[in-house]
Specification:
Length: about 200
């Protein structure tokens, strides 16, 4: 029966990260990593920690008793504690600020309760970071330059085309004028029909 007593103690402390164990966040946003714990027999000098990818400690806190608020022992500057002891399930959630793509991974909420013979347990949540990858400004400038250059060439081509068409039209109009005027001169000089030579009647004898 002593074994059953130890088993009951081990399962008295429960840690939860909610209904789903995955969270998605946009790049440069803030994301809530939820965690609560509950115990049947209460707690004293409880210790809780948050780990990134099982080994990197990002938050370490303590709660003296149910009537006191959690206190921070150490935390990563980008991590903010948002929990409280006010509810039945004690909230030990954190917020990760300015999410980066490198923050994607496994976050473990670990709780140890000395009042339960140092019983400890944890729960895990997975973070996925989404967003547009920041492009190098040089690449952007090259793309803008190429597109701008192509648009500029297109406009230049259209202008040149209009000028060429205008010049061709002027040359053709000039040739027509030359043909008309030269036809008139020939008629007058050669005395053809419709010329001035026809208007002078020969003198009658």
């Amino acid at each position: 029966l002593p074994g059953l007593h130890v088993l009951a103690i081990a399962f008295a402390l429960e840690v939860s990260v909610g209904k789903t164990n995955t969270v998605t966040a946009l790049n440069n946003s803030n994301v809530l990593l939820p965690c609560t714990f509950a115990t049947c027999i209460g707690f004293q000098d409880l210790v809780f920690k948050w780990y990134f990818n099982s080994t990197e400690l990002i938050y370490h806190g303590k709660i003296k008793s149910k009537t006191t608020e959690p206190t921070v022992v150490w935390h990563n500057p980008r991590v903010e504690f948002v929990g409280s002891t006010a509810k039945k399930d004690v909230n030990i959630s954190i917020v990760l600020n300015n999410v980066e793509f490198s923050d994607a991974g496994k976050y473990t909420c670990h709780v140890k309760n000395p009042k339960e013979r140092n019983a400890q347990t944890n729960a895990t949540i997975f973070l996925t970071a989404l967003g547009v990858v920041e492009t190098d400004n040089t690449v952007t400038l090259i793309i803008v330059g190429v597109v701008g250059g192509l648009i500029g060439l297109l406009i230049l081509f259209m202008l040149v085309k209009r000028v060429v068409l205008f010049i061709i039209k002027k040359v053709q109009d000039g040739k027509k004028e030359c043909l008309v005027s030269s036809s008139g001169n020939d008629n007058t000089e050669n005395g053809l029909a419709g010329s001035k030579a026809e208007q002078k009647a020969p003198p009658k004898a």
